[in-house]
Amino acid sequence: WGMQNYQGKLLAKNMGLKSKIMFKAANIAVKLFNIFSKYDCDLAEINPLILTQDGELIAADAHLELEQEALYRHKELEQLNIPIRKDSPRIPTEFEIEAEKIDKIDHRGVAGRVVEFDGDLGLLIGGGGASLTIFDAVRYHGGKAANYCEIGGNPTVKKVKELTKLILKKPGIKGLAVITNVLNNTRVDLVARGVILAMVELDINPSEYPVLFRSAGAYEEDGYKIIRKYGIKYLNRDYSIDQAAKTAVEMISNLK
């Protein structure tokens, strides 16, 4: 039942871990998976998992989401007074329904929660809690977001493309900002390809349309090569996500 110790060790070994670190990581992986399975979790995450100079692995933060419909099977959790999530009474918009369909076309990567707003700046953002920081920064600098769309988990080019097309086709959109924190589980080049393909398929000239790209992480330089090739404005990781949000807002403001 669940993940066995040998499976945890194989997983850690395939990650390139060795010696004591491999056994410690394997132990954490087994326990995390078995908690996920035992308690009917929708999500069981340790992020970040820190390796200290002394060779210890420390869970600096963790997040669990329990399936509400399965709580009745876990009476032992009642003492934790876990609040029941209440779905929003607001009916999803066509934009939000379509985004959910796009998210389901492939199991790889997630679009997170997509919410439609009435602004003119389309957002494709990522980085866990950084997504909310980016969204707030846009508002702080006077911008009006057209949507909230968080990507992560290494979405495919197709998924990024379809999400980008959905955003760009939204009435009132004047520009697009692709801003993420440093992502260790999402390839920057795939995000770049998806954004470019979306614009090409919509017959939008990437070098002329107001787009800002600031994403850091795996295959970062490859992603920037693609962006530079098509003449899109980009900011590297030397620029904070707040600076990127401010630049995106100014980009839209200069059109007025």
TrEMBL record:
The keyword Iron is annotated on this UniProt entry: no
Gene Ontology CC terms, in alphabetical order: succinate-CoA ligase complex
GO biological process: succinyl-CoA metabolic process; tricarboxylic acid cycle
Keyword Nucleotide-binding in annotation: yes
Record key words, sorted: Acyltransferase, Ligase, Nucleotide-binding, Transferase
Domain annotation ATP-grasp fold succinyl-CoA synthetase-type: ranges: 1-50
ATP-citrate synthase citrate-binding domain mapped to chain residues: 101-231
MF annotations from Gene Ontology: ATP citrate synthase activity; nucleotide binding; succinate-CoA ligase (ADP-forming) activity
Matches recorded under InterPro entries: ATP-grasp_succ-CoA_synth-type, Citrate-bd, Succinyl-CoA_synth-like
Catalyzed reactions: oxaloacetate + acetyl-CoA + ADP + phosphate = citrate + ATP + CoA
PANTHER family: SUCCINATE--COA LIGASE [GDP-FORMING] SUBUNIT BETA, MITOCHONDRIAL, SUCCINYL-COA SYNTHETASE BETA CHAIN
Name of the protein in its database record: Uncharacterized protein
